[in-house]
Amino acid sequence: MALLPPETVSTPTSPAPPSATTPSRRATYLRRAILAFAVAGVALAISTAAPLMGPLLVALVIGVAAANTPGLSRYVVGTAPRLDKLLLRSGIVLLGLKIAITDVLALGASGIAVVLATVVTTYAATQLAGRLLGLERDLVTLIAAGFSICGAAAVAAVESSIRARPKDVALAVALVTVFGTIMIGAVPALGSAFGLTDEQTAVWAGASIHEVAQVIAAASLIGAGGATVLATATTVKLARVALLAPVQLVSARICRSEDATRRGPLVPLFLLGFLAAVAVRTTGVLPQGVLDLAGQLTTLLLSAAMFGLGTGIVARYLWPVPVRALLLATISTLVAATVALALVTLLV
After folding, report:
1. Half-sphere exposure (Cβ direction) of 46: Cα atoms closer than 13 Å
2. Interatomic CA distance for residues 280 and 154, integer angstroms
């Protein structure tokens, strides 16, 4: 695993009395929480100024930089792994508040068919291509989830179940961000070149581009970039996000079938929380102000969690990027784009 040497993290040789360790542990977690949220705030500010750089990727890069800076690494590496997991899982739960099943159903049979077929085909084709390329199952599964569902958030959600190496998680996040960014400009331009209507291009963008923020950016480039185009693209994308639960379950089963030593519930509590949040959003009981606040908190929590993930990574092990991983990312992106385009032209 691409972690810093063990000596960078102090480990007591014998357990101390609870009265002595508990206050120190609480103080450590508090300091780490303050640092993680501060980094998340910085990442949000940077991504606002440079929209093509998502806050989750920025926070991950800051974490990697901190973990690889002499004198600083001992303050951030391995200090609060449980807190990092709690932040991630809380963010995934709140992500469910972005999804209303009624909005997904409003896409109609054709829109839902585009989403389902694109997600299933992209995930399955990525798994098959990864196996043929000889890549490790965990990395392939992370890429398959990220490219078929919702980018870095899906990678992080699946990682929490399959317990992949931090190196593989970072590589999958970097790839899904780079390829999704390329698609921001490519999909609107190609939609115009192919003679698609604004609605068709919006559906194509939502069904094929990896991150939610990237879909929004692409929608602004479609036609006049009006509210209708934005709403269509975002709704299609969130319909893909709604499939996070089944993809997470399938991913966990695939990886555990190849490694019987992996433990943990097949359906983790945070996934049930995600589904519960979707149900709450669907009822319409929450006012828009609460939903907007929850959306901002979701990004903050996931960014803070990605900072924690980054602190467990040695930067030199991420470069050069493996050629086979680049090839797999290219295949996954092309499958998502071509399948979605074919279905849009036939059904929308």
Report:
1. 18
2. 21
**Helical axes 137-148 vs 244-258, angle rounded to 10°:** 170
Question: What residue numbers bound the domain in which 160 lies?
Answer: 107-298+322-347
Does residue 17 register a pLDDT over 50? no
130 close to 143: Cβ distance less than 8 angstroms: yes
| Residue 177: closest CA among 147, 216, 222, 220 | 147
Burial class (CB in 10 A: 0-12, 13-18, 19+), 109: exposed
293 contacts 103 by C-beta, under 8 angstroms: no
Instruction: Specify the DSSP class assigned to residue 53.
Output: S
Number of folded domains that form the chain: 1
Q: What sign does the dihedral 204-228-196-112 (CA atoms) show?
A: positive
State the greatest distance between any 2 C-alpha atoms of the chain, in Å, as a whole number.
Answer: 71
Residue at 255 is within a domain: yes
pLDDT digits (tens, 9 = 90+) for 200-233: 999 999 999 988 878 888 888 888 767 788 889 9
Rounded distance between C-alpha atoms, residue 39 and residue 301, angstroms: 11
Q: At what angle do helices 198-208 and 108-133 cross, to 10 degrees?
A: 40
Residue 58 lies in a domain: no
* Chain segment 266-316, per-residue pLDDT in tens: 567 888 888 899 999 999 999 999 999 999 999 899 889 888 877 876 666
Is residue 233 one of the residues assigned to a domain? yes
Residue 305 lies inside a defined structural domain of this protein? no
What distance in Å separates the CA atoms of residue 181 and residue 65, rounded to the nearest whole number?
22
The full DSSP string for 227-292 is: HHHHHHHHHHHHHHHTTHHHHHHHHHHHHHHH-TT--S-SS-HHHHHHHHHHHHHHHT-S-HHHHH
User: 5, exposed or middle or buried, with CB in 10 Å at 0-12, 13-18, 19+?
Assistant: exposed
